[in-house]
User: Fold SIMPL domain-containing protein from Sphingomonas lacunae.
Amino acid sequence: MAAASAALPFAAQAQTVPAPQTPHGMMHSMADVDSPLLAFSITEEVKSAPDRARIGAGVTTTATTAVEAMRANTAAMNNLIAAARRAGIEQRDIQTSGFNLSAQYDYTPQQQGQPPRLIGYQVSNQLSVITANTTRVGALIDALVSAGGTNIDGPSFFLADPDASLDTARETALRRATERANRYARAAGYSSARLVSVSEGGGFTPPMPMPVMMARAESADAGNVIQPGQVSNGITLNVQYRLVR
Assistant:
C-alpha cells in the first residue's frame, strides 16, 4: 500500500499536464494535406465609358539655319498651346512628348561623286494633350489643326483611375475561380476545393486610336463624330486550390 500511495501524487500531477496544442492551420487531416493541388489562372474583364482622351499634336518647321528653324517652331508651338488652352485644356495636361532638330541635305550631288549639300534644318516638336471632355474630341482636333498642328496622332481613350473599376472584377474572378475549382474537385472524386493561394496580375488595354486623317475629315464635314465607346480593363488571378475529400 505504501508503494501505491507513493505513486498517487505522481499520477495526479501527470493529469494536470496540458494537452498538446494543434498549431494554427493544422486542422485539416494528413490526407487533406497530401491531396492534389490545382492551379490555374482566370481573367475577368470589365468595360467602362472612358473619362479621358489623349491626342498627340505637333508642328514641323524648316529654315536655312538651326536658329531660324527653332524660332519658327517656337512661335508655331506657342500658337498650338494657346489653341489647346482656349479649348479648355489645363496647362498640366499639355506635355512635350517629342522634340527633334535635324540637318537636311540634298543628296543629288552624290550622283556626280560629290558629298551631300546642306540645305537647312528641320525642327519637329510634339505635344501630348489630355482632355476630360471626351464628347468634344473632334472639336479639339479641329482647333489644333486650325492653329497650325500638322502632326496629329490619336485620339486614344482611357480611364483616369483604371483600378477603381476593378473591385467588381476581382470579386467576380475569385467567385468564378472557386466554382471552377469545385467542379474540378468533384470530377476528380473529391468533395470540394480549398483556396491555398492567390496572386493578381492583368492590365488595361485601350482600344486602337482612330486613324488621324479619318478623324480630321469626318470632324470637319459632320461635326463631332468621334465616339469614345468603351474601354476594357482586365484582371487576372493566379489561384491555387487543394482538393478536399
